[in-house]
């Protein structure tokens, strides 16, 4: 087709990739993400609660965590762990996908913790488009 005669629409993408287009959206633009953390608690307290561990201070820059720490800490799921540990590793995996693949930043080596608000209830993940 000559240039300009075809436009890819959201419905085309949904059909081709099998992705849902109705439901809650996931956006990388979450400027006031702290307001989305339950109960107005500090975001790093929520981080530790959901992932069970805090990164060392030299891996943190305001609201950004270095991916190297995430990979070192969560690269291998030990056998025989409980359900909550599996959920923590799942949260990290999805956060890494969102921050390094889907909504990539230029470096690819840092992850903003704004994705944490999407990871609170893994049961709701299928409601996002």
From TrEMBL:
<dbReference type="InterPro" id="IPR044824">
    <property type="entry name" value="MAIN-like"/>
</dbReference>
<dbReference type="InterPro" id="IPR019557">
    <property type="entry name" value="AminoTfrase-like_pln_mobile"/>
</dbReference>
<feature type="domain" description="Aminotransferase-like plant mobile">
    <location>
        <begin position="1"/>
        <end position="128"/>
    </location>
</feature>
<protein>
    <recommendedName>
        <fullName>Aminotransferase-like plant mobile domain-containing protein</fullName>
    </recommendedName>
</protein>
<dbReference type="GO" id="GO:0010073">
    <property type="term" value="P:meristem maintenance"/>
</dbReference>
<dbReference type="Pfam" id="PF10536">
    <property type="entry name" value="PMD"/>
</dbReference>
């Amino acid at each position: 087709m000559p240039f300009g005669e075809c436009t890819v629409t959201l419905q085309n993408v949904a059909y081709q990739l099998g992705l849902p287009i109705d439901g809650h959206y996931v956006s990388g633009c979450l400027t006031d993400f702290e307001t989305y953390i339950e109960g107005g608690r500090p975001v790093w307290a929520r981080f530790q609660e959901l992932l069970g561990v805090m990164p060392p201070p030299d891996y943190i820059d305001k609201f950004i965590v270095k991916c190297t720490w995430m990979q070192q800490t969560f690269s291998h799921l030990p056998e025989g762990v409980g359900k909550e540990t599996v959920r923590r590793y799942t949260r990290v995996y999805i956060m890494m996908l969102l921050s390094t693949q889907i909504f990539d930043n230029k470096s690819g080596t840092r992850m903003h913790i704004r994705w944490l608000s999407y990871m609170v209830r893994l049961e709701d993940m299928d409601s996002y488009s």
